[in-house]
Amino acid sequence: MDEVVASNQAVWEQASTKHVREYDELLEEARGDGLLLTRELELLAPVLAAEPVVVHLQSGHGLDDIGLIKAGAQRVVGIDYSSVAAGAAQRRARELGMACHYLVAEVPGVPVADACADLVYTGKGALIWMRDLDAWARDIARVLRPGGHLFVYEAHPAVPLWTWDEDEPRIRPDRSYFAESHVNDTFPGNGAREWQWNLGQIVTAITAAGLHLETLEEYAEPFWRPQDNTNAAAWSGRLPNSYALLARR
Ligand SMILES: C[S@@+](CC[C@H](N)C(=O)[O-])C[C@H]1O[C@@H](n2cnc3c(N)ncnc32)[C@H](O)[C@@H]1O
After folding, report:
1. How does DSSP assign 73-106, residue by residue?
2. What number is the average pLDDT over the span 154-174?
3. Residues 197, 128: contact at Cβ < 8 Å?
4. Structural domains in the chain?
5. Distance of alpha carbon 49 from alpha carbon 156, whole angstroms
């Protein structure tokens, strides 16, 4: 494994202990509704109606996987390089009787068969940890069966620029939309090096891997708000904070 990726993995092993500490709260959350966002459920509705086999890249605490099963997925294979995250997600899925199976592995280079998935699902803080986006997109194209879909719901690439000032939105003086990477300074990835892929690079990597872009939507609403800072002016509706992308092999 690349040295920077290995150091990021160590940060994630530590950060993922939260999923163990908060196991019971997450289990309770998993029993409820609202695990997936309304818009992602709308965009995924035709795909989920066909009871897809899903591969979830960077599955984290795995609540999305339970949401996908509840919304129609036949089964989900979650892949994450944090053994702590994958272990907690597996325990939770087993306890709830959900058809989710977790693998501890690096993305890209996932240990699943070619053309095994009807849907590759990823996002919510995933792409920024990819060092090589072309390799990521090629791996997705390999894993998808012909006609299968890739779905990404992710923080907008402009987000690293926004300050969390509450009076008005400002651009951080230490960031550039076109920078290659920066060191994350917020929980949970604090101290890890994240890569900045802009929208053009993301779309180009996906289409160059042979996928056909079906939907690309940008949203003002962030997919996640840190608990201690819920009122940043950058989230008030004028700036992009997340996007969804659906592509087909
Ligand atoms: C912000 S979390 C998002 C996870 C998931 N979408 C969720 O909402 O819980 C990012 C996850 O990516 C995993 N991760 C980061 N880089 C990875 C890589 N190169 N290979 C596999 N997993 C990775 C981390 O361990 C972490 O669980």
Report:
1. -SEEEEEES-HHHHHHHHHHHHHHT--EEEEE--
2. 96
3. yes
4. 3-248 (3.40.50.150)
5. 28
Ligand 1 pocket member 125 (CB < 6 A)? yes
As given in the structure block, the two tokens for residue 51 are 């009871």
Is the CB of 184 inside a 6 Å radius of any atom of ligand 1?
Answer: no
The β-bridge relationship of strands 242-248 and 181-183 is: unpaired
**Pocket flag, ligand 1, residue 249 (CB < 6 Å):** no
CB 63 within 8 A of CB 28: no
* pLDDT of amino acid 227: 66
CA 197 to chain centre: 14
Ligand 1: centre distance to CA 189 (Å) = 10
Give pLDDT tens digits for 172-188. 999 999 999 999 988 78
Q: What is the residue-wise DSSP string for 144-207? A: EEEEEEEEEEEE-TTGGGB---SSS--B-TT--TT-SEEE--SSSSTT-EEE---HHHHHHHHH
Q: What is the pLDDT of residue 158?
A: 98
Cβ pair 211, 225 in contact under 8 A: no
What is the Cα–Cα distance from 194 to 209, expressed in whole angstroms? 23
Instruction: From the CA of 130, give the closest atom in ligand 1.
Output: 19
Centre of ligand 1 from the C-alpha of residue 82, in Å: 8
Q: Which of 166, 183, 152 is nearest to 225 (CA)?
A: 166
Please indicate whether residue 80, judged by its CB atom, sits closer than 6 Å to ligand 1: yes
